[in-house]
Amino acid sequence: MDDRGFFLTLQAIRRQLAAMPNELYLVRLIHHQTRKAFPGERLWTAQQLGNAATVRFLRVRNREGCDVYVQPYAGDQNAGYVLVDLDGAQPTVIATMRAHGHDPCVVLQTSPGRLQAWVHLSTAPLEPAVATAVGKWLAATYGGDPASTDWRHLGRLAGFTNQKPARRTPAGHAPWVKVVETQAGFAPGAEALLRSAQAWGLASSGPGRDSPGSAKGPSAQRFAPFSVLSAHANNFRAQKAHEALL
């Protein structure tokens, strides 16, 4: 049984990373009770993460209560991938994203009824402000978690269990993080999203720019044009509501 679980985890990891290729990945283990990161956080290649010894190490930590998170890594910039946390979204949300050119390259089920989607926007690193702005717009448009939109937010790594007590099954088991679908490549609407973000001036690095990922967060001046994104998101939702009545 353990061998079967090992190979299912290995298959899930390889499938997820194959659809979101990157030179390096940051992996973080966070214990669900203490919320403290496991010591020894490091960067891995896809090959290293698919190594048998690595998978066994991560499975042991997972059984000990650690949730396993991953993020394509590009130093102090975004690696070209934006996470959309769709915990409370409609079941048809992925089809709606695809219909509007915002196709995810990876969709995970983190627990029954809860999804995470990675959208590939660029092979070149993105400025933190641009990636955050696009993440906020996608979350606002598709019902994602607005608290999970910063440029370096980590998502779950498939093949491990979700250790959050609130996500336990009625029988008390931790649900598995499963790969729902993968489709390597850029979202068809990626160029338009990035062009709009740059036009809104979100990548400016003028005086008063906060450091990437700082606790203080982006300055109001730098994100003033975000009202334009919000208006677009509101118009989009209104259009969908109107279509539902027809």
Keywords:
five-stranded antiparallel β-sheet, 7 helices, disordered C terminus, alpha+beta, Alpha-Beta Plaits, 246 residues
Low-confidence stretches: 202-246
Tell me what the CATH architecture is.
2-Layer Sandwich
Structural class designation: alpha+beta
Fourth CATH level, the homologous superfamily: RepB DNA-primase, N-terminal domain
Q: What is the CATH topology classification name?
A: Alpha-Beta Plaits
CATH secondary-structure class: Alpha Beta
Order of helices and strands: HEEHHEEEHEEHEEHH
Global morphology? globular
Tell me how many strands there are: 9
Helix coverage percent? 25-40%
* CA(first)-CA(last) distance: 51 Å
How many distinct domains? Answer: 1
Q: Rg to the nearest angstrom?
A: 18 Å
Structural overview:
The protein is an alpha+beta fold and 246 residues long. It has a single domain (2-245), classed as RepB DNA-primase, N-terminal domain (Alpha-Beta Plaits, 2-Layer Sandwich), CATH 3.30.70.1790. Helix content is 35%, strand content 19%. It is built from 7 helices and 9 strands; from the N terminus they run αββααβββαββαββαα. It has helices at residues 2-19, 46-49, 52-63, 93-99, 128-142, 190-199, 226-245; strands spanning 25-31, 42-44, 66-74, 77-78, 81-86, 106-111, 114-120, 155-156, 178-182. Strands 1, 2, 3, 4 and 8 form a 5-stranded antiparallel sheet that branches. A hairpin with a 2-residue loop joins strand 3 (66-74) and strand 4 (77-78).
